[in-house]
Design goal:
The protein is an alpha/beta fold. It is built from nine helices and 34 strands. It is globular, with a radius of gyration of 24 Å. The termini are far apart.
């Protein structure tokens, strides 16, 4: 702890990697505490998630179940906690009810601080006009007041639809060491895939000289991860200018980043080498779940130490695995009853798999009932579904093509029904 004296009053500054609490002796007596943070996070969680189809008909994309006992939003929230970031604004818009209930007061992630914590930030009515978030930049612009409450040096912008573990504190150290106005996390991708991403072209020192949105002929393979650290003073200025431009699409990639480059600000790419998956499509969500399985999983959800993934989980009893059951390279969460065969699949909390049933290369979300004799292959079954006896969903890979069948939330598949590979119900 250190003290700072001014001509009129004394302040005590308590510093940590994520915050500085500034107590004025006169004001503190009234309970009026000034808070200054080194960095706060703003998590964009309002997208419709239309590419996930029936899985996001009733829930926001970040609230979609993942990995047996998590939801997608658990990953960026846990990354914040593990990086000692204690203030997170979550910007919601589309189908927010389940997500809002899930987040609650942030206690499961330790984000219930009286001087920060987590706060859900939906669009709200204003004195002059009321509008939905028009784009990623506009969403942050509409919440300038929230950010100003903490007077941060830096603002971390995150997306709510990525699966990964990352130390944002290390990225912040790089950002500050480079005296960067904006630092963008990038990962190296194969050249043949680079045209699917926003590409950051850099100099030898990592400084960014050009940004290309999904270029047909990429100059580099530094793909943006949609994770940004901005100096707040710089970001605020550009958000206000962007909002005043009627031709802007109010988007970070299309408008804010190019504007910063054109104005000569310092932008740097931060290389990330760990596992990262955008789970915005049916195929990528299925793949990310499969990446958890096997003796040497592509993504180790439980390690290393210091990178725990937190979630709001209700207490459930241990799963019952009957003598008739067979399990091969699969994950079965708590509260399940398994009587059938599970092969290379993720079975979420509270599920039942009946006798003679076979679940292969599939993702079964929470509280699904799979009755006797059911066959499920290469499928995603959403929460609360009932699959009646003898039904067949999906099929094996044919001619090298895998087609994922999807059953939407709380659907009932009738006895003996046949759902073709790739079908969406």
């Amino acid at each position: 702890m250190k003290s700072l004296f001014t001509s009129s009053k004394k302040y005590v500054i308590i510093e940590s990697p994520s915050k500085k609490l500034v107590y004025g002796t006169k004001r503190a007596a009234r309970g009026d505490i000034m808070v200054k943070k080194e960095m706060i996070a703003m998590l964009l969680a309002g997208g419709q998630g239309s590419r996930l189809g029936v899985l996001t008909e009733k829930v926001a994309k970040p609230a979609v179940a993942f990995g047996g006992k998590y939801r997608i939003i658990d990953f960026p929230l846990s990354n914040c906690v593990n990086s000692d970031i204690d203030t997170v604004g979550i910007l919601t818009q589309y189908q927010p009810l389940v997500l809002n209930e899930y987040i609650g007061n942030g206690q499961p992630w330790g984000l219930n601080s009286s001087h920060g914590g987590v706060q859900v930030l939906p669009p709200y009515a204003k004195s002059k006009n009321s509008e939905w978030y028009k784009g990623t930049a506009n969403a942050i612009y509409q919440n300038i007041g929230f950010i100003q409450r903490y007077n941060p040096d830096n603002v971390l912008i995150l997306s709510g639809d990525h699966i990964y573990k990352m130390d944002y504190a290390a990225m912040l150290r790089f950002h500050e060491s480079m005296e960067s106005d904006c630092t963008i996390a990038v990962r190296d991708v194969p050249l043949k895939e680079a045209s699917r991403f926003g590409i950051m072209n850099t100099r030898e020192d990592g400084s960014i000289y050009e940004f290309e949105e999904k270029p047909k002929v990429p100059k580099s393979t530094n793909a943006s991860m949609g994770i940004y650290i901005f100096k707040w003073s710089v970001l605020k200025e550009f958000l206000e200018a962007d909002e005043a431009d009627p031709t802007s699409e109010n988007d970070f990639g299309k408008n804010i980043i190019p504007a910063l480059l054109n104005s000569g600000h310092r932008l740097f790419a931060y290389q990330f080498d760990g596992y990262w998956k955008d789970v915005g499509t049916i195929e990528s969500l299925w793949e990310a779940n499969m990446d958890l399985l096997g003796k040497h999983p592509a993504f180790d959800i439980y390690g290393p130490e210091g990178h725990k993934i937190y979630a709001r989980n209700t207490t459930k009893p241990a799963s019952y695995i009957a003598k008739s059951a067979e399990l091969h390279e699969s994950f079965v969460a708590d509260g399940c009853e398994i009587y059938g065969m599970i092969d290379h699949s993720v079975i979420s909390t509270g599920c039942t798999v009946g006798k003679g049933a076979e679940v292969v290369d599939s993702v079964i979300m929470p509280d699904v009932v799979i009755e006797n004799g059911v066959s499920i292959r290469n499928a995603i079954i959403a929460e609360g579904c009932v699959i009646r006896a003898g039904a067949k969903i999906g099929g094996d890979v044919e001619n090298g093509e895998r087609r994922i069948s999807v059953i939407g939330k709380e659907k009932v598949i009738t006895e003996g029904a046949v759902i073709e590979p790739g079908a969406i119900i």
